[in-house]
């Protein structure tokens, strides 16, 4: 299983006004699917990620795109 963060320069056109960061989770055919599901649930519950897209490739590999809104923190002082 491989996790990859996409930089902020890689954005979709429809997300121009909304600032998101992306995490791509790639699962090879030899990895267990329950383990992949567990990692997706952990990311969504504790990291505030949401599933944007999932793809099943020929051969059994899977790729999941997760996204979360970038929070802009403003100083109060």
Commentary on this structure:
Strand 3 and strand 4 (about 60-70) form a beta hairpin. The protein is of the alpha+beta class and about 80 residues long. It has 1 helix and 4 strands; from the N terminus they run E-E-H-E-E. It has a 4-stranded antiparallel beta sheet with strand order 1-2-4-3, covered by helices on one side. Helix content is about 20%, strand content about 35%. The longest helix has 14 residues, at about 35-45. The chain has one helix at about 35-45, and strands at about 1-5, 20-25, 50-55, 60-70. The N and C termini lie far apart (about 45 Å).
What topology, given as strand order, has the largest sheet?
A: 1-2-4-3
Query: What kind of sheet is the major sheet?
Result: 4 strands, antiparallel
What share of the residues lie within helices?
10-25%
Work out the strand percent.
35-45%
Please give the oligomerization state of what you see.
single chain
Summarize model confidence as the mean pLDDT. Answer: 83
So how many helices? 1
Q: Mind telling me the C-alpha Rg?
A: 14 Å
Please identify the structural class as seen in this structure. Answer: alpha+beta
**Number of E-state strands:** 4
Q: What is the string of helix and strand elements?
A: EEHEE
Termini Cα gap? 43 Å
Low-confidence stretches: none
Q: In one word, what is the shape?
A: elongated
């Amino acid at each position: 299983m491989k996790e990859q963060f996409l930089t902020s320069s890689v954005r979709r056109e429809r997300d121009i006004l909304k600032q998101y960061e992306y995490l791509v989770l790639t699962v090879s055919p030899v990895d267990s699917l329950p383990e992949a599901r567990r990692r997706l649930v952990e990311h969504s519950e504790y990291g505030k990620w949401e599933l944007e897209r999932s793809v099943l490739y020929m051969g059994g590999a899977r790729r999941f795109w997760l996204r979360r809104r970038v929070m802009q923190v403003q100083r109060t002082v």
